[in-house]
Amino acid sequence: MALIGPSLMCADMGNLQESVVRLDQAGVDFFHLDIMDGKFVPNFTMGPDMIRRLREFTTKPFDVHLMVEKPEDYVDLFIESGADMISIHTEATDHLQRSLQKLKDKGIKAGVALNPATPFADIEFVLDVVDYVTVMTVNPGFAGQKFVPLMNKKIKKLSDLIQEEGYDIEIQVDGNIGYQTIPDVLHNGASMLVCGTSCLFRPDITLEDAVVKLRGFIEEHQLEKNV
In the chain, is it the N or the C terminus that has fewer CB atoms within a 10 Å radius of its CB? Predict the structure, then answer.
């Protein structure tokens, strides 16, 4: 069954601790934390101190998405703050394989992130040290953007490659993942859903009800796929 990971950049920053506790109790599978440095992407979000503080309130995995230049310089800092999974962008480092191997050596799940225009061929020769691939379905930096339709084709091609090569790699999708886009990304091979304002953080529904509704929707579509 596909995993649900709330994107905490979309949560109420004034009540972030409460949101994490409520989402944990509602049964989400992991928490997605976006780290932005204002250089690799035109925005700033979160940091290790915030992650360290939130770590006290849940035992669910923390998936740290490093949208920063030279992520290898910050990996240890975020591991110490409580990260269980860390994804880095191919364009952000000159030493992708080394950085991913460092994560593996430290017992952290290693992820590699692909921007919409980044071909998955860029990661073909590091897949042996990758636990999950984050396919950005919007251009990173801001919440509330429109899903890029061609990303469904990318997800499908990536899924086919992973199966052909026999790797045990999850495909995560991040960006406008909601009721309109989830059926297609699931059909094409995604198994980890980063969810924000499109389906979880909405003013017309509680966090608890949003998780229940989303879980039911996912189960329904995955059952249809398996029929």
Answer: C
